Amino acid sequence: MPALAVVALAGAAGSTLAGVRLSRLAIDPDAQFTNLTGGRLARRRAARPRRAAALLHAAVVTAGLTAAVLPLASPGYRPAVAATGLAGTTVLLGAGLFSLPRRPRPPTPVRLRRLLDGAVAGLCLVFVAWLLLPYAGVPAAGRLAAAVGIGLLAGDVLTVLTGAHRHTGAARCRVGAALTMIALVWLAALPAGPTAGLAALLAVPALVVGVLLIADGMRHVAQAAGDPPRAATLIWPRTLVPAAGVVVATVHQLQAGLLLDRVAVSLALAAVVPLVVRELLSGDAERHSPPEPAAPTPEPAAPPQAMPPAAAQETSPSDQAGAVVRPVPAGRAALLWALAARPTPVTGALLVVDLHLTELPGVAARDDVTAEAVRRTRALVAEGDEVFDLAGSGLAVITTAGPVLAYALGARLLTVLDRPYEVSGAVLRSRASVGLAELNPGPPEDVLRQADLARRRAAQLGRDRVEWYDAYLEEQLVRRLELERELPGAVARGELDLVYQPVLGLADRWPVGTEALLRWRSPVLGTVFPAELLPVAEDLDIVGELGTWVLDRACRQLADWSTGGRRLWMAVNASVRELTSPDFVPRTVAVLDAYGIGTDQLVVEVSEPRVGAELPTVVARLAGLRSMGIRTALDDFRAEHASLAQLRRLPIDLLKVGPELTVARDAGHRPLLDVVVTVADRIGLEVVAEELESAHQVEGALRAGCRYGQGYELARPATAERVEAYFEEFPTTSR
């Protein structure tokens, strides 16, 4: 096979694989980085990763087309084709990389040192590329341009692979883009001759690996949550790789019997200039750095060096009349700078506070609330603590206190920040959430990310609370994000399933009904149970969609089991939010009519602990169901005074109690189940003992007077086929 054909096939295959992945990220409406909430600026920022995926997809396709067209072009036009593809790919890659999420810019001295380090490595690699590129039939200007392009791109790859953010998706995209451009520059620089095909094979690894790295990096960008992780910068590869390349290229040139030409000597001398400048800047910084004091002296405020020169600052009103107004650092960059400047050993904690206003004020009013919150916080914290305004997203506090005192500070902040705010003649209220993370010697981005995760957890648990970070918390939040991303559309994808647990008569162990239990068979998360599934569905407001599916599937299965004279009931759980929907009763009756099921064969269960907040509406819906002949049940009943008192108000037919009531709490006393059964008999309710997992519990429930039972000891939940086979062991039931 001709060498150029190998280049075309490899480039087209790699670009196709990468393009398919990037196109999914660009057009998938369920992509994790999609966010259509918030204002125009928030939506524009949320759209940047999607735009980056689209641009990188176009760049990958352009690179693949360039490699595929090369065998079709005549030898004289192949460099022009490669140069055209290189130009188009460069523009698209640049636009795509520019659209990726950006990190905070480091201070100017740090950026200058990084630039000089990159210049030294880049010039050395340009020198290597100049000596190794083929020169027969290639103009000197074209050869130099190709050497500069390959060398600088290789230097960029080296810098990214050894930098602190080398494990992020954006870093992989940059490395992939550089490798792709190196391959195209190599193809454009090849001379038009018989040896060009064999030399073109060297571009295949860089091209294929480059486009696949772009797709993989974009996938990591879509899956990333919070700030990107940092790692220690690798210094030795930045020094060793360029130096080794210079030695290898020089030895190769001398073995070929050639001396270094003027361009090679000029490149070698040019690499000395940034090296000298960097050393001069480092030495000047050391001479002008202030000496460390012999003994630390307390200062009333943070030293100026603890704040980045470019960080935006705001001033806060003084807590006392006539006191000096202190600057308030603003922005996450200032916070990261202060965390990095903490003296070692690092002690204390970081508190990140989210101010959730119950109303939706304008931007000016929100800024006034934040300024007032910062003023209250500064009046509360200790003298050595630092307060930061996070520019619209809340505030942060760096404290030197230990874990116990830091948690107490967070609790006091909740009390202070929850007081009303008088802004522009209006009274606004907020519900704060505080996330805590201990300071550690690691990168400051990790500490901020941990505190942010704890703050999100506090917000998810209802706000007005303080949460500490731990590794288990991070696993929970990542799991929650995956659930929120995968659950929408689960019904349409056919991932939901029902299992059924038979309900038996305790006296004769005869099946009288079943309960439908929801399972989500996710190909990504595995089997998800209702305890984890339903809270996420409530937050996403798709409980009604799930409940409609469960009712339809359960009634269809009940209709299948009812053939042949078998008479069973089907119990279906309904959430309070679903039950309070105005169309719940007529929708339920319509499903029963569609499958020809008797209304007395359906039992709608509602959980007793969730009824209290919506008791009047729940009573009305249950009464509506009973008026249509549908039976109702109260699940998870607690034998408490308030629960017993509201039994008369609830229009129910069945009462489901747990196994904990079958055991007496004190010696010489009857089990609470006896009391519950007595009360239920007086008001005409049947009692179902559920979660019976031992013969002792079954015997206790039967002795207390329960008519029905449900649990692993009697029958385990199973698929419809297994339950139907279980029913076949009994003659036709009509109960």
Automatic annotation (TrEMBL):
InterPro entries, sorted: Cyclic-di-GMP_PDE-like, EAL_dom, EAL_sf, GGDEF_dom, Nucleotide_cyclase, Rev_trsase/Diguanyl_cyclase
Q: Source organism's superkingdom? A: Bacteria
On whether Transmembrane helix is a keyword of this UniProt record, the answer is: yes
Which CDD domains does the UniProt entry name for this protein? EAL
Q: Where is the composition biased (Pro residues)?
A: 291-307
List each copy of the EAL domain by range. 480-731
Annotated membrane-spanning segments are 53-74, 80-100, 112-132, 144-164, 171-190, 196-215, 235-253
Domain GGDEF, residue spans? 346-471
**Coiled-coil parts of chain:** none
Specify residue ranges for compositional bias: Low complexity: 308-323
Alphabetized UniProt keyword annotations: Membrane, Transmembrane, Transmembrane helix
Q: Which GO terms describe its molecular function?
A: cyclic-guanylate-specific phosphodiesterase activity
Sequence segments annotated as region (Disordered): 284-323
Instruction: Keyword check for Phosphoprotein, yes or no.
Output: no
PANTHER family in the record: CYCLIC DI-GMP PHOSPHODIESTERASE PDEF, SIGNALING PROTEIN YKOW
> What name goes with this protein?
GGDEF domain-containing protein
- What lineage is this protein's organism placed in? Bacteria, Bacillati, Actinomycetota, Actinomycetes, Micromonosporales
